Amino acid sequence: MKYADLHRIYHQPFFDLIQQARAVHQEHWTGNEVQLCTLLSIKTGGCSEDCGYCAQSARYSTGVQAEKLMEKDQVMERARAARASGSTRFCMGAAWKGVRAGTRKFDQVLDIVRDVSTLGMEVCVTLGHLGAEEAAQLKQAGVTAYNHNIDTSPDHYSNIVSTHTFDDRLETIRHAQDAGMSVCCGGILGLGETIEDRLKMLEVLSNFNPHPESVPINALMPMKGTPLGENVQVDSFSLIRMIAVTRIAIPRAKVRLSAGRTNLNREAQALAFFAGANSIFYGDKLLTAANPRANEDMALLQELGLAPQEPNPGMTAPAADEVRELAPACAIGCGA
Questions:
Q1: 327-334 average pLDDT score
Q2: pTM of the model
Q3: What is the rounded distance in angstroms from the CA atom of residue 33 to the CA atom of residue 309?
Q4: 236-249 and 266-275 helices cross at what angle (nearest 10)?
Q5: Which residues are catalytic, by number?
Q6: pLDDT tens-digit readout, 140-193
Q7: Distance CA 126, CA 95 (A)
Q8: Sequence spans of domains, the chain
Q9: Is the peptide bond before 210 cis (omega within 30 degrees of 0)?
Q10: What CA–CA distance (Å, rounded) separates 291 from 258?
Q11: Residues forming a β-bridge with 43
Q12: Distance CA 215, CA 250 (A)
């Protein structure tokens, strides 16, 4: 979708936007279901990157201590608990710049993935930069989806991170898609960006070919000690507007209401679901940030008449659109 179209859609009166997004949502998602995802940090802190929002960077004094990669038995215990509580996707994150085939830590991750994939949940990992070989090995081990957010617009990206480029992010996404994994890719609101930056980020996402299978929309939770630790938190209407525009721009993707959900009351969360969100992180913690408690989430879903989506660990990654492959916009790291 072009930036001009996204700008027009975003700047509609709020209720007109919500109504349009709801109509698109009902066309493509008819089951009143919400995907429940659990996120576990399997390697916390000590990251060499300088992402300005991240408490896990070794460059900042945030109180987050560097830890070793979790043992497989510990991960499996948490994965089984997630399944028992109703989660259908288990996401594992490691605070690394990237991984390389043949290294001990990558072999350990592959071993963990193989065992987690036997539990009947979808398996998602986020490990930083991937080459083609690493992506193929993760897919073979049982990874359903690879998470790698683009965070913000190409123009604003260098204001947030200097240790890698926006194109580096696109390269990893391309490798994950070429390996046959679904891509979970979204952004973060509240990084000092403009509304135009948010829409330009969405322009890139909407021109991936194939589209992301899921799109997390995060609101920055400022972490003390990071360069963005004093940023003003995004208001709920701005967050819901972005969820609605994302639903319209990428209609078949799961739109995940992600970080920042603790700042939304029940009514704002209900409005986010109405506007097109159909996936949440479920559990008490997101890597190093708080998350609404699982029992509160289940109570809200029940009150709204929403049901947890069934897991689909064998799901096929979205296919490339032959028509969109011819579009010049797809040269932005997404199909050319």
A1: 36
A2: 0.89
A3: 5
A4: 20
A5: 47, 51, 54, 91, 124, 184, 256
A6: 999 999 999 999 999 999 999 999 999 999 999 999 999 999 999 999 999 999
A7: 9
A8: 3-331
A9: yes
A10: 9
A11: 94
A12: 9
Tokens 């790698």 identify what position? 148
φ, ψ for residue 153, nearest 5 deg:
-75, 160
Cα end-to-end span (Å), the chain: 16
CA dist., res. 156 & res. 190, Å (int) = 12
**Residue 321, Cβ density class (10 Å: 0-12 exposed, 13-18 middle, ≥19 buried):** middle
pLDDT tens, position by position, 194-226: 999 999 999 999 999 999 999 999 999 888 889
Could you tell me the pLDDT band of residue 58, with boundaries at 50, 70 and 90? confident
Domain 3-331 has CATH 1.20.120.30: no
Residue with tokens 């709920």: 236
Residue among 39, 73, 28, 64 nearest 285 (CA)? 39
Beta bridge partners of 159: none
87 contacts 121 by C-beta, under 8 angstroms: yes
3-state secondary structure the chain: CCHHHHHHHHCCCHHHHHHHHHHHHHHHCCCCEEEEEEEEEEECCCECCCCCCCCCECCCCCCCCCCCCCCHHHHHHHHHHHHHHCCCEEEEEECCCECCCCCHHHHHHHHHHHHHHHHCCEEEEECCECCHHHHHHHHHHCCCEEECCCECCHHHHCCCCCCCCHHHHHHHHHHHHHCCCEEECCEEECCCCCHHHHHHHHHHHHCCCCCCCEEEEEECCCCCCCCCCCCCCCCHHHHHHHHHHHHHHCCCCEEEECCCHHHCCHHHHHHHHHHCCCEEECCCEECCEECCCHHHHHHHHHHHCCEECCCCCCCCCCCCCHHHHCCHHHHCCCCC
